[in-house]
């Protein structure tokens, strides 16, 4: 009996150690997403694509709550179902005709990427392709000049209003930065903006003056180069306030994809599809990625943020900008995001 108890205890300890090792070895964000996936109800999703794209779709959707069915043609199974197509131009004629016919039987048909956008509020960038961009007309900020005019008006009105609060806070921040460590108050750094044009982003200095003596480095959550004052102003986003100057100059918007450095863009575009598409719009002080995804500086984090950035570019509107600004206020007040 004792041997059985000891054996069971040993097995339990081994399993517990393996689970602990797995938790420590994986990104916490991935674990959260996995838990959500496990507890979400699995939906039947009927996918129509060429045989060569099946493996890609299965891999991209592996963590989604779907039971996938490919190229089903039995109409009796499709009534009231959601049918999604991928690269419709590559579908055989009979499948394309069947999708049109399926709508008459009560099926709901739409592009796979659009369906995922609507369900999950982000764009699966691995499923994007050149044909998608050429035929997609829902990029409202790109196709409608009126949207750009309204967005610029919102930027100017909001920047003027924020300046009333930002100026006194900025003066105090400048004083404590100067008192704490030697070096300039402001930090200027070349970032890539609209249409791949570089500009100098302006921030309050939050790191030591020699922070990049060994070259460009990714910032990390508990970066040792950050000063004590810098830690506070980064957490509260006070370090971003000088970027209102960039907004007034027309180099940035209040809301948009965060601008990145060219040295990191070259690294990221090698592994993230259409990474430079973010430069089709002005970069922002805050963005959908910043209020939807926790702080992170890994390649995986950049992939997830890019999903939200592409979604934002596709669906930008005045109401979405206002929503992001309100969520940013919540993020700052509760110290989330950094």
TrEMBL record:
EC number(s) recorded for this UniProt protein: 2.7.8.-
Pfam families named among the record's database cross-references: Bac_transf (PF02397)
Enzyme class: transferase
Segments crossing the lipid bilayer: 153-177
Domain Bacterial sugar transferase: residue ranges: 151-333
Domain of life of the source: Bacteria
InterPro entries: Bact_transf, EPS_sugar_tfrase
Location(s), subcellular: Membrane
Membrane topology: Multi-pass membrane protein
Main localization (coarse): membrane
Recorded GO CC terms: membrane
Keywords: Membrane, Transferase, Transmembrane, Transmembrane helix
Keyword match Lipoprotein: no
GO molecular function terms attached to this record: phosphotransferase activity, for other substituted phosphate groups
Protein family according to the UniProt entry: Belongs to the bacterial sugar transferase family.
NCBIfam families xrefs: EPS_sugtrans
Protein name: Sugar transferase
UniProt organism field: Aeromonas caviae
């Amino acid at each position: 009996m004792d041997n059985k108890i000891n054996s069971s205890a040993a097995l339990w300890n081994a399993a517990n150690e393996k689970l602990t090792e797995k938790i420590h070895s994986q990104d916490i964000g991935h674990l959260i997403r996995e838990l959500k996936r496990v507890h979400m109800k699995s939906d039947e999703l009927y996918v129509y694509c060429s045989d060569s794209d099946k493996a890609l779709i299965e891999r991209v959707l592996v963590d989604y709550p779907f039971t996938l069915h490919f190229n089903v043609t039995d109409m009796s199974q499709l009534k009231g179902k959601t049918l999604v197509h991928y690269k419709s131009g590559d579908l055989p004629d009979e499948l394309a005709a069947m999708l049109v016919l399926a709508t008459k039987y009560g099926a709901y048909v739409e592009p796979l990427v659009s369906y995922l956008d609507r369900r999950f509020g982000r764009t699966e960038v691995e499923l994007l392709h050149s044909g998608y961009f050429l035929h997609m007309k829902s990029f409202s900020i790109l196709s409608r000049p009126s949207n750009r005019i309204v967005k610029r008006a919102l930027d100017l009105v909001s920047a003027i209003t924020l300046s009333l609060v930002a100026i006194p806070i900025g003066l105090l921040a400048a004083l404590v930065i100067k008192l704490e460590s030697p070096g300039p108050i402001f930090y200027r750094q070349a970032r890539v903006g609209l249409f791949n044009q570089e500009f100098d982003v302006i921030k309050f200095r939050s790191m030591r003056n020699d922070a990049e003596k060994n070259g460009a480095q990714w910032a990390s959550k508990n970066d040792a180069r950050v000063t004590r004052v810098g830690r506070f102003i980064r957490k509260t986003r006070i370090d971003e306030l000088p970027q209102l100057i960039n907004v007034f100059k027309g180099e940035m918007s209040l809301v948009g994809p965060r601008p990145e450095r060219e040295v990191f863009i070259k690294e990221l575009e090698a592994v993230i599809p259409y990474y430079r598409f973010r430069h089709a719009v002005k970069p922002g002080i805050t963005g959908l990625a910043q209020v939807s995804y926790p702080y992170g500086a890994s390649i995986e984090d950049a992939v997830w943020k890019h999903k939200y950035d592409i979604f934002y570019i596709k669906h930008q509107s005045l109401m979405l900008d206002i929503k992001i600004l309100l969520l940013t206020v919540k993020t700052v007040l509760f110290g989330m995001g950094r």
